[in-house]
Fold these 2 entries.
Entry 1:
Amino acid sequence: MAPEKEEPNKLTPVPSQEGQFEGVHHTHDAVFGELTEDGPNYRNVGWIGTVALMTKSMIGIGVLSVPISFDTLGIVPGVIILITIASITTWSDYIVGVFKLRHPEVYSIDDAGHLMFGRAGRIIFGTAFVLYWIFVAGSGMLGISISFNAMSSHGACTAIFVAIAAIIGFTLGSIQTLAKISWMAWVGLIGILTAIFMVTIAVAIQDRPFAAPKDAVWVPDYQIVGNPSFTKGITAVSTLVMAYAGTPGFFPIVSEMRDPTKYTRSLLVCQTIVTVTYLVVGCVVYIYCGSYVASPALGSAGPLVKKVSYGFALPGLIVTTLLVIHMPAKYIFVRILQGSRHLATNTLIHWVTWLGCTVSITVIAYVIASSIPVFNDLVSLVGALLGTLMSFQPMGCMWLYDNWSSGKSEKSVKWMLMVGFSGFVVLSGTFLMVAGTYGSVVSIMESYAASGGSAAWSCADNSNS
């Protein structure tokens, strides 16, 4: 059935926002204030564009680590854990949309934190939100540099490629609205899906993984059930959590939808695409590569496929980087100008503030990407500590915040089950946060003990797995 046609400048009222809309060309939004033709339309993302933005915020470098996680955990536990994480995060993401409809003034996760826990909640969640996306932006810059190195056979110093990635991220991340970015999200999504499925097909038709010994009969060595140490096991689980940790970005995305009531539709399409992709890529690549799977997985099928696949993946890596620069910059921008006419009007103050936010986020992410040793382990640490914190616990608390009082007077079976499930989400997220952080710290210590860490602003080729 053809999607419903949506007028590009019309803001669709939702139950929790009745009476706030004054017309097609001049309207009031609970977050952005007065929206007129004199400024950017911050409420112009359709539900299909929302699918692209959500899916692209999920599928990135994370999908390339799924086969490695399966190698650690074993394919059966890996699949079970991945489906469990998918189910919990789908519920968490759904609660984001429900909470936004009930509280239209909420723009980001720190607003939810403020409603639930006061000023301390705003500070904790706001700081975590910005730091999380900055580190992910740094990881995205490194991903782009890996792609450049792979395609050019290390044609330049890696530090130069990281700088180029930062310039690209700043330029595209400075586009004002998510509606104008959504078409790029489709391009990036198609590119990275093409790359990962190309590698998946390549490893399936080859007689052995590229890294496997060539002088012996190849026998697949994948494990049905792995036997990792606690540290390695919990780190692998944290990696799978990170593959679904786009949740913090869903509040800003739903805030720019034309019709937030269609958020759940977009979410279900997104989670279906993401989970099917992770399962197919993770299972096929791991079964055919076993312990010789590369990290990232695009290197598993040999140099030629690696070059071609990174070429297709490059637009996806660029879009991931621009999105994770745009979202923390937009958050800071809204906080600085909220309540002012400059927020939604193209004034000098508007542009100076907006570009100041995007360049600041870019520069910090670039410095982190270029200067911090054992960067991948550090990103895992920040992901375990901050990504889990924003994808599990707040959503359980959000359901309890909206439903605790109403349910106490009449304790139905459904209410009691949801209280129990919300508590489980909070407790499981806390366990994963603490245990994942511990595993990442141990991994960093082991990396230093083995090699002393990696050099800052290094020219070394970072595309070799």
Entry 2:
Amino acid sequence: MIIARGDNVRSFTISPLVAGLATAVGTMLMVGYVGATAYLVLRDDIIQSSAERQAQMQLSYEDRIASLRSRIDQLTSRRVLERRSIEEQLADVVERQRDLDTRQARVSGILAKAAENGIRVAVGGPVPPAKPAAPAVALGSLDAPTGIGGTPEPIEISPVLSLRGTKADYNAAAEAAARQGAAAPGKPLRDLAPEAAASQPQAPANPPAPDQRVELIDNVNAALDRMDGEAHAALDVIAVTAERDAATIADTADELGLQLAGVKADLASGQGGPFVPLAGSDFDSRIERAEKALLALSQVKDAARGIPLASPVPGAELSSSFGPRVDPFLGRMAMHTGLDFRATTGVTIRAPAPGKVIFAGRNGGYGRSVEIRHPSGVVTRFAHMSRVSVSEGDTVSTGDPLGAVGSTGRSTGPHLHYEVRVNDRPLNPIRFLRAGEKIATLLDD
């Protein structure tokens, strides 16, 4: 490095190391100066920006904390509401179970009454078999050569009878419903799918989680609904079946010219109309209808049992029918007032219905004979007996022995002459026997 001032000239030699150090020191001083100047100028902006960032972060944290607290409050409130809801639902289920217990007790009573009347609603297993049909009365040959007799009577017969001894209370709506129940009389009822009726659902001893509780309550409610529906279905089936059976018995009595008290004679035989699904009705009205129908059926059955519908000599064939025939002794046309049952001497004669013996002994051409007055007012006569086992004034039940077949009196051989009389006028007994075959399964409980 050369420095000249006027005539004075000076020269210096600087080593690279010194030059580098000097440059570095100068640079450092310059950077420090510039940095200090920038700090002094920008310090306030930096501090303010930092403070704003911290304030924003704090607000964000506070908002997040408030949101979490709100969520916690919502969850807590929901849990409280769910707990209350579950408790209320459990209380409802318990109340429904108590109500269903009461209903089931009433339905059980109705089922017992229905069983007493021969109506059995299946509560498990397959459908029960139908009742065995009553033995048929064999008409046999009308021109059989043995065992005929009897006394001649006028041919003109016009019987009119009102059956006594019943207080059945019927109405047209019940009769129509019975007819619309449309199944053959005496057949068993359908199984009502009772798997839920065998036992009621019970709550577990250890309470499960809330979600499981809700599912359990739903299952219990579904089971209770199913059981309630089965009870309603059973009541409907019992009511319709009882009404139908009672109408069948009444119709059969009408065919015999008998009128059961309390049952209208003009029961409509035609059916039809649009299909209308069965709407849900009140339980009390259902059970009231079933009770009324069972009471009416019981009363109609009691009245019908007073009609002589059974054969006095079960399984025996007929040797002579009711109506005009050639008299076996005189050879002229005469009225045969009964049926002649072909049987050997000593075969037991049985009462065709309950009643009171109003005659027992010899009676002219009838020989040894018995007469019974039944609760319906119908009188049955049994003639040509070889032996009489009852006395006047005795009370007999259906199937009780009255004596034995014989050939006493105006008779050509051993047989039973059987008559059915109303107001001392004879009716055709075969109509009563066929009616008995028709409703035998309804009268047998």
